[in-house]
Amino acid sequence: MRDSREGLERGDRKGPGPFAPMSANGNGFKRADFDAIAESIRPGSRVLDLGCGDGVLLKYLKGARRVTGYDVEIDDASVLGCLTNGVDVIQSDLERGLSEFESHSFDYVVLSQTLQAMRNTEGIIRDMLRVAREGIVTFPNFGYWLNRLEVLAGHMPVSDNLPYQWHDTPNVHLCTISDFEDFCAGHGVKILERKVLTSGRPVEVLPNLLGALAVYRFQRA
Amino acid sequence: MGSGTAPRSVGIVAPQTARFSEPLRLRSGAVMDAYQLVYETYGQLNAERSNAVLVCHALNAAHHVAGYYADAPDNVGWWDNMIGPGKPVDTERFFVIGVNNLGGCHGSTGPASINPNTGKPWGADFPVVTVEDWVATQARLADRLGIRQFAAVMGGSLGAMQALAWTYLHPERVRHALVIACAPNLSAQNIAFNEVARQAIITDPDFHDGHYYGRDTRPTRGLRVARMIGHITYLSDDEMASKFGRQLKSGKLHYTFDPEFEIESYLRHQGGKFSETFDANTYLRITKALDYFDPALEHGGSLSKALAPARANFLVVSFTTDWRFSPQRSREIVKALLDNRCGVSYAEINAPHGHDAFLLEDARYHHLVTAYFDRIQREPSA
User: Fold this and answer.
1) How far apart are CA B267 and CA B75, in angstroms?
2) What is residue B5's predicted lDDT score, i.e. its pLDDT?
3) Opening angle at CA B63, ends B58 and B64, nearest 5
4) CB neighbours (10 Å) of residue B69?
5) Nearest to residue B151, comparing CAs of B48, B233, B260, B225?
6) Angstrom distances, CA of residue B104 to CA of B19, B55, B111, B278, B281
7) CA–CA separation, B62 vs B134, rounded Å?
8) At what angle do helices A32-39 and A56-65 cross, to 10 degrees?
9) Is the pLDDT of residue B224 over 90?
């Protein structure tokens, strides 16, 4: 989705901070969460990728995991980016759901760094689990200690993972790792796997405090 | 973009004629014993014969897709902004074919041609042709040109219906289909517009039940009205408002029935120009071909089942202000292709021009087609 992509671009412009996501511009770099996602996906699967930007995730998964599938993007630049990257893309607004896609027609649906910008959070999670066996989401953990520190200091956090000022952010539903797990428990979503990363490295201890980025794989409970 | 050269015209082109004597059974049951197709080609067919692109035309166009004629330099092909060296469909890399469909009035056998059984023009006796019939004749032309498989078949509107039909009628012969401003069938509203256009022609006293060639008349008044109606549906309300608004030709009202508003004079001009160059019997048949197109009909209404044989990869494009073939109709096609797990990309171009947008130069639209043909070029051919 446009939002996460712009976020990355803005993050890039600030220079490589300690938590900078790697470039998603398709120049051979990959975002920190790509490996974590790829590890969770069985080779040869059918994957629907929602709002990744310019198809680099699916392109990466096609190479690393021999997957097939489509990207879903809303803005023109992302659609063109997908085609340029050789990735099939359907131009559609995720907020309107995934009605083009039949139930159970994919192995995985991936929503990478877009959940926090979705208005209809419940709707998209429900639709993800309708069209695919398993869902994968990644999002910036608002409970990360640097974010907490900024809030304690009296400001909304602005960082490489959260690059927007409060007044122009597309992120309408930021959450913490604990929040997301509560949400899953309350909405019939069974978490199969959780990975927490900071600067691309796994975080094992106190993930909700020390983790900058969360990666979840889940299915219907 | 493309080969890296600045976009140019393909330059001077010349139509060619292919004659076929093997009888062709049409969907209607009628049989064409012999017929000819007029076509143009641009670029070079490569040694593997794998770089051919077929361009299918819509209602009022023909085989003259790109370039211009030596004796008529102003007669530029109808999709010249799309096709040429360095253009989205780059003729430095692709061998592009434009063909006038059977029943046409630009050189291919049609109602004005001589019926060999009577020695007179076919007129009203020329059979009704369908999208599937056109695909059958185009396939024979491809055989003639030694093309077993097209790199792409493409078109807009009715041309897109032919591109779509190719993919389920000859799945092994199409690697990619570009289905632009299309619909899986016409809505009742669309058929209604076509019927008004046909009635305008048929009720013209100069129509003579379609046998007007031997007389010194043509139903130009009816054809003019038909074209005016069609033209309204190809433009969006906003586009008409911004182009014409309520502008008056002379700046004041005259309280007569002469054209006073600019839009009236524009429609009369377009209708008049069209009626001089187009044949009414062809117009009738092409509108029927549009009405009849409905691949799902033979599959219990399931477009997914109709498209099940397709093996091509697809680029489906719609335009937000196209109310004749709205984006929703393209989404139906996309859904059916997704159901069949076809390779498909779908783009909805935010353009103000209505249905006609597929013919116009728009950076977002042309960049998509460029990127798609780059991808066709990169992939290994079968």
Assistant:
1) 21
2) 65
3) 105
4) 16
5) B48
6) 15, 15, 8, 9, 9
7) 13
8) 40
9) yes
Average pLDDT over residues A131-150: 96
CA distances to B160, B300, B325, B339 from B356, rounded to whole Å, are 13, 32, 10, 29
- Of all residues in chain B, the one with the smallest CA distance to A102 is B339
B273 close contact with A: CB closer than 8 A: no
Res A8: pLDDT: 36
Give the span between the Cα atoms of A169 and A171, in whole angstroms: 5
Alpha-carbon distance A20 to nearest alpha carbon in chain B (angstroms)? 30
- Give CA separation, B18 vs B37, B41, B99, B142, in Å: 5, 12, 10, 11
SS3 A7: helix
Give the number of C-alpha atoms closer than 13 A to the C-alpha of residue A220, restricted to the C-beta side: 10
Using the Cβ of B348 and the Cβ atoms of chain A, whether some distance falls under 8 Å is answered with yes
pLDDT at A34 over 60: yes
**Identity of the residue numbered B172:** E
Q: Are B207 and B280 in contact (CB under 8 A)?
A: yes
A15 Rama class: left (phi>0) / alpha (psi -120 to 50) / beta: left
N-term to C-term CA, chain B: 25
Segment A47-61 shows an average pLDDT of 93
Residue B243, helix vs strand vs coil: helix
Residue B267, pLDDT > 90, answer yes
**B371 with A84: Cβ contact below 8 A:** yes
pLDDT at A29: 41
Task: State the Cα–Cα distance between residues A113 and A40, nearest whole angstrom.
Answer: 16
The residues with which A219 forms a beta bridge, in sequence order, are A190
Cα(B131)–Cα(B165) distance, integer angstroms: 7
d(CA A113, CA A110): 10
Q: Token pair for residue A151? A: 């809030």
Flag whether pLDDT at B23 surpasses 70. Answer: yes
Pairing of strands B313-319, A68-73: unpaired
How many angstroms away from the CA of B231 is the closest CA of chain A?
28
Contacts of B364 in chain A (CB under 8 A): 76, 80
Which phi and psi (to 5°) does residue B66 adopt? -145, 165
Q: Which of B338, B341, B345 shows the shortest C-beta gap to A83?
A: B345
As a whole number of angstroms, the distance between CA B360 and CA B321 comes to: 13
Q: Which residue has the tokens 């993800």?
A: A128
Residue ranges of alpha helices (H) inside chain A are 2-13, 32-39, 56-65, 76-84, 121-131, 145-152, 177-186, 207-210
End-to-end CA distance of chain A: 27
Q: In 3D, which of B364, B94, B258 has the Cα closest to residue A91?
A: B364
User: H/E element holding A48?
Assistant: strand A46-50
- What is the pLDDT of chain B when averaged over all its residues? 95
Return the closest-CA partner of residue B313 out of B163, B182, B183.
B163
